[in-house]
Backbone:
């Protein structure tokens, strides 16, 4: 699984990317202050 690394002055945050879904980064003054991960599920084709 791929990952995104977010560096800040205190520590490095690791965000694992979902197989299907989205990652939303909330930025304030050029710095990430919050992130949301939404995992989606793809229905199989019949």
Residues:
């Amino acid at each position: 699984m791929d990952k995104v690394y977010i560096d800040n002055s205190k520590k490095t945050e690791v965000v694992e990317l979902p197989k299907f879904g989205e990652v939303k980064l909330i930025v304030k003054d050029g710095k990430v202050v919050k992130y949301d991960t939404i995992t989606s599920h793809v229905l199989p084709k019949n």
Q: What stands out?
A: The two ends are 27 Å apart (CA to CA). The mean pLDDT is 90. Residues 4 and 15 are 5 Å apart (CA to CA). Strands lie at 3-7, 12-16, 21-28, 31-39.
